[in-house]
Q: What sequence folds into this?
């Protein structure tokens, strides 16, 4: 088993990568599990080999996309949802596959209230202040009322795939107003950019599980904030995908900012 495991420490984040055949269901708390890398997705690797049934063995909360870059994925309480290009939400079939997803068995150690109204940047600062100083990464769940959520989703692609920075030109941006729901996702350190999205990556789904997407901006008005700090990232690498060298992070920063930012 050790021969198939690429294990390394990237500063304080412990990263293990493995192939699909070597996966085992995740039972340890505070471990983040990821299918493929954001660097591979940026280059147009939109078809992964991991099904949502398999992904569910590694976590019950998370985000990502579907094969063919067919919308934004939201995992919440063990259910997997797809927000289509217009933000309409539907459940994902267990046999559907993902080219990029991050999930965890969410076991928060921090549970706080944040009063609103709070602009998105202020909200992120408040979350930063709640994360223990030593934690490199964390999973985040925010439940409550939002005056607005500005979100986007992406249209399904067909091969030959274009790079993500070109595809996001066709993204749809939409705004949800006065909505109760859940914003969830992760915060990763800058030094894993290329493997992951550095900083915050958040998706939203409303209470009725009807609307959602990749969060660009928000204004919240009273939230329950739960945070699950982590220093362990396990990565499943599809065939032909290798772990990006984090030293290349600087060169991919602009591309990730264009693809994932506002
Ligand atoms: Zn996203």
A:
């Amino acid at each position: 088993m050790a021969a198939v495991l690429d294990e390394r420490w990237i500063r304080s984040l412990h990263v293990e990568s493995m192939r699909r055949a070597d996966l085992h269901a995740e039972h340890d708390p505070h471990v983040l599990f990821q299918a493929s890398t954001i660097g591979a997705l940026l280059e147009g690797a939109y078809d992964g080999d991991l099904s949502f049934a398999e992904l569910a063995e590694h976590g019950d909360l998370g985000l990502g996309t579907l094969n063919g870059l067919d919308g934004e994925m939201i995992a919440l309480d063990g259910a997997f949802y797809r927000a289509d290009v217009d933000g309409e939400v539907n459940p994902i079939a267990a046999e559907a596959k993902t080219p990029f997803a991050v999930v965890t068995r969410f076991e928060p150690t921090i549970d706080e209230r944040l009063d609103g109204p709070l602009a998105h940047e202020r909200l992120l600062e408040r979350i930063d202040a709640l994360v223990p100083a030593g934690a490199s990464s964390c999973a985040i769940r925010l439940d409550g009322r939002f005056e607005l959520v500005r979100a986007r989703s992406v249209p399904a692609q067909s091969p030959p795939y274009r790079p993500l920075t070109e595809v996001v030109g066709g993204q749809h941006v939409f705004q949800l107003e006065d909505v109760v729901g859940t914003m969830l996702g992760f915060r990763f350190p800058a030094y894993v950019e290329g493997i992951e999205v550095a900083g915050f990556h958040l998706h939203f789904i409303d209470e009725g599980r009807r609307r959602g997407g990749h969060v660009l901006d928000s204004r919240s008005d009273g939230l329950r904030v739960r945070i699950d700090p982590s220093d362990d990232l396990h990565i499943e690498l599809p065939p032909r995908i290798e772990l990006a060298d984090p030293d290349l992070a600087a060169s991919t920063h602009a591309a990730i900012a264009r693809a994932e930012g506002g």
Summary: The chain has one domain: 1-262. Residues 63, 72, 201, 203, 214 surround zinc ion (CB under 6 Å).
